[in-house]
Amino acid sequence: MKNNDSSILYEVHNGLYVNLTNRCPCACVFCLRNTTDRVGRSDSLWLDAEPTAEDVERLFAERDISKYEEIVFCGFGEPTERLDALLEIAAFLKAHYDKPIRLNTNGLGDLVNGRPIAPLLAGKVDVVSISLNTPSEARYMKEVRPCFGAGSYGALLRFAEECTKCVPKVVLTTVATTLTKEEEEACALIARSMGAMYRIRPFE
Length: 204
Ligand code: SF4
Known about the structure:
This protein is α/β, with parallel strands linked by helices and 204 residues long. The protein has one domain: TIM Barrel (Alpha-Beta Barrel), CATH 3.20.20. It is 35% helix and 17% strand. The protein contains 8 helices and 7 strands. It has helices at residues 5-8, 53-61, 83-96, 109-113, 118-121, 137-144, 152-166, 181-193, and strands at 9-12, 15-18, 70-73, 101-105, 127-131, 169-175, 197-201. Strands 1-2-3-4-5-6-7 form a 7-stranded mixed sheet. A hairpin with a 2-residue loop joins strand 1 and strand 2. Helix 2 packs parallel to helix 3 (83-96). The chain is globular and about 45 Å long. The two termini are 31 Å apart. The mean pLDDT is 96. Iron/sulfur cluster (SF4) binds next to loops.
């Protein structure tokens, strides 16, 4: 493994973040990867090679985890592209540390893996945060540009709803300043209708 360790585990505020992959089925026009190489206290989130679950677990074992408020699967790619590793690492974390585990995802993990994945997250992930981005499917297709094409927005919504049955907390997110008040209210309604929370993330 040639990766710098901070490419794999990196700190953002009081959380410890896990960067498993640079693969993503989307090509968001606003993707941070288009404008920067790093987030938080990382040198670069571009990976020379995807770390194995064992690589990641070793890096956790070398750290003092007690100082972090949460552990977050989120990086320069879609974590559910590495579903097996994600589940293995999450089980390891649950067995060794008493920290909340969050998955930040674009919500297309069912399409990535060709099967419903929400039930697999039960007992391993405490919070699923899903980038809804917009209440409009047409705008979603234009700005997120998922490789799966039509049906992607519906798949995101189905995944989110399934997560509310399997995971303690599900949050749909949009980014501040990108939507009108009416659009934000529409997103809040979508979240409420499925028993999820709605959060407007700060613009970065
Ligand atoms: S889903 Fe995330 S990682 Fe993928 S292109 Fe969009 S912003 Fe970038």
